[in-house]
Structure formats: structure tokens, C-alpha cells
Amino acid sequence: MHISATIPAKPTIFHGREQTVNSMIYLLRQSSTARLAVIGSGGMGKTAVTVAVLHDERLDAQFGNRQWFLLCEALADVDSIVIALAKLFGLKATNDLLYAVTTHLTNNPRDILVLDNIETVWLAGGFPDETVEELLGRLSQIQSLWLIITCRGNVLPQSVDWSNRDGAALEPFSLEAAVKTFEDNAGHLFAETGKVVATRLLSEVDHMPLAVSLLGQLVRHGSQVPDLVEHWERDHTALLCTYSAGQFNSVTVSAELSISMLIAANDSRESLQLLSVCTMLPDGLSPRVFEKMCSQFVSIDVARDNWTVYALAGLTSDRVVKTLSPIRHVVLERYPAESNNCDALYSIYFEIADQLPDEMVEQFKDLAVIAVPEIGNLTSLLLTIVNRPSQKVVDAVVRLTRFAYWLQPNTTVASALLRHLESDHHLWRAQSLFATGRTQILMDNFGFAVGTLADAAWEFVMVGDRAPACRKSCKCLARLKRLTRPPTLWPDYFRLL
Question: pTM score, two decimals?
Fold first, then answer.
């Protein structure tokens, strides 16, 4: 076990955490004995914040060189922590090392002690270790000791009265901090056009600090930002790893540490399975859908609460459970949901699709308020299942396309479905083509709409449906004929009808 009294180097790139640092500095300077925690999911920059605090010159007069930093990552249990502290303070071996450590700290006028990554010992078995809680409690009672911990997760040891309990959790970067961090890691500033693309890339990783830094380092090593956007869309978290300054950094490795603790805490693996379901929903698991999924789980509330403990997901102000994009993709790629849970989720969203209004009826606005928050999730789920077309899938795609027609027209899902429909699926093709063509008109894609609606009319004819669906296609075509030129766009489609 290598123990060093040297505090880690001050972060050279540090943006967006100034308020947190200032708040911690204030508590360290003003409180008689501060007890501070920095918590959050992996990759949030907990250690960087703490190290920045230790290097702040405002603490020099009060603490001088009486600042200690112990990395707990390689420690196995509470005895390992005590042994490491004794070595850190240069104490001789005795039969009661804990007494020696606490006596040493009590006799000093003031010290700051940081226990970094305490979760690797405190939550090693999946549940809070009482012996670690007891140690933290004893340390917190030393009046001349200012205690700081960093901990992966969103819960705090209960044996300590934390001075910053309400402000301990780190959130993702703001857009401004993400852009600055990205540019500093990349080694250069971006022009406005480049910054637009970079902003899109950073939003794809939800401004997660570790992911932002790794992307910047990839640019420094020669990658182009547009290529990284394409690479992310193709490979997701496989992109987010780099080796620099003798250290391997990976979002996947960081997320896997939290997932391993979640698995250890829940033998039934319900927490992991519910998390797998949640990651299928890019806009998060709403209370409405959560309630409908209850029948699939024995203890669904416990399963959800475990995510919060290990900071794998969080609750929004409207109680939607969401995961950060990089963590979401790690789970999607490595821990897919079981088929029965997938089927249950699909059924719920088929019901949501059935309730989508496809015409501007009187109750459209009320229905839209309920439906709009789920559109992103419905779109994502349908894109995963259009390769297995069925009547339910086709109906959901058509209703979604028709609903989107009135809000934000797009043909993404319908076009994806059409690529998987066989030539003899005449009715399904007709319905999908008609919804697509109608939307293309609104999107001013007149040239494409002509062919799409003509194909829809032909497919309706093939199933013997000349009215009313076929007439609707013709009506749209007639409207297009008035709107578009040149006439070469117009072969004699109506002869087929």
C-alpha cells in the first residue's frame, strides 16, 4: 500500500465549480469544525473539486501544511483506512492504531483530512458498512479536525452532521462550463461554426464533466469535432476513453464501478433490470409509466431508490427518473432489459400511441399536453422495434407521424418502418406511405411527396381500397399538382385509380 502525504496536483483545467469551491472554503474558514461531503455519480469531478479547495490560498493562513489527502480506492476495509491514516501521519505501530490516530489528530491545533472515494470501502458490499460509519462518526467528533469526504452516489453517511448536506451533490456542467472545459482540453478555441457543432456534441453527453474532458482530449490528439459527432452516434461510450499522462480514463469504467455496487446491493437484480428499462427511455421514466411497470417487479420502489444511492439516475422536479447520456449508453450496451420487461414497456407505449390525436379535434390541446413529454421515448422505442413489424407497430408509427404533423413534422420513424416492410405488406405500406407523404407536404418536400403519395395510392389499390383512403391520397396529389412545377413531376398516376 503506497501512502503519500503529498496532496494531488491542482487541476489545470477547472471551470463551472467556482461556486461549490467558494462555498466549501467559506465553511472551512468560518465554521468551528466543518464536515463537508462532495457526492455525485462517477465522472462528475468530485476529486477535482476537493483538490481545488485544498490548493486555495485562502486556507494557507489557517491550515498551512496541515492538510491530508487519503485515496481510499485501493483500501479493503475500515482497518485498512486506519492503517493508511497512521502511515500518513507517520505514527508508530501500536496495538490500538485507531486510538493513536484519533489522539494524534486531537492534539493538533487544526487539520483538514480528505477521505477520497470513501464509497469503495463504505459501500463495498452493496450496503453501508457500519464500521466505516463508526469511524467517520469518531473522526467527526474531533474538534480540531475539519473532515471532507468524496463519495460516489447520492447518499451521505448518517453518523456525521454534514455542514453542507443540502449542497453536497455535484450536477453536470452548465453549457458555458462544458464549452470552456472542452476547448481547454482540446487546446484551442473554436470559431462560431465549430462551436455550434461542439455544443451539439457536448449536449449528447449531457455535459458530464469526465465525458467533456475526454472528448476535448480526443480533439487535442487529432480528432475532428464533426467526426466525433458521427463517431458518438455510431459507437457511443466506446468513444469516451483516452490514455494520457500515464492514466487510463474511461466513462465506461467509471459507470461500471457504480453498476457493480448496485448489483452487490440487490441480489434479485431488480434494480439493474429497472435501470435497464429506464435507459430505453431517453427522456426518462415518468411517474405514469413507472406506475404501469409495477406489476413487473416485486419491489419496484426499492429498485428505483437504489439508483439514487449509487447516482446512476436522478429525479427531475416533475419526478421523472433520468440517467445521464453516457451512463445510459453503458447500460443499454452492456445490460439490456429482459424480454418480458421490454414487452411490458412496449405495451405501455403502444397504449400511449393509441391515445395520440391525429386530427385537430376539440380535445387536441388537452391530449397533446399529456402526450408531448412521451414523444421522444415513443420515437426511440419504435425505432428499436420497426425491424419487427406488426399491426401494433404500424398503427403506433402511423399515429405518431400523424400527431407530429401538427406539432413538429418529421418522417423519421415512418421512413425507418418502410425500410423493413416487405413488398407484399400492401396495407401497412399504404398507411405508412400516406402518413409520410402528407407530412412531406408540410415540410415542403414536394418532390418526394409526389412519389410517396402516388405509391400510397397504388398500395391502397392493391388491397382493393379505392375509398376513402385512396381518395385522400389523390386529394393530396391534386393539391401538390397546383403547388408544384415542372409538370415532368406528373406521370399519369390517376390512371391507376
Answer: 0.74
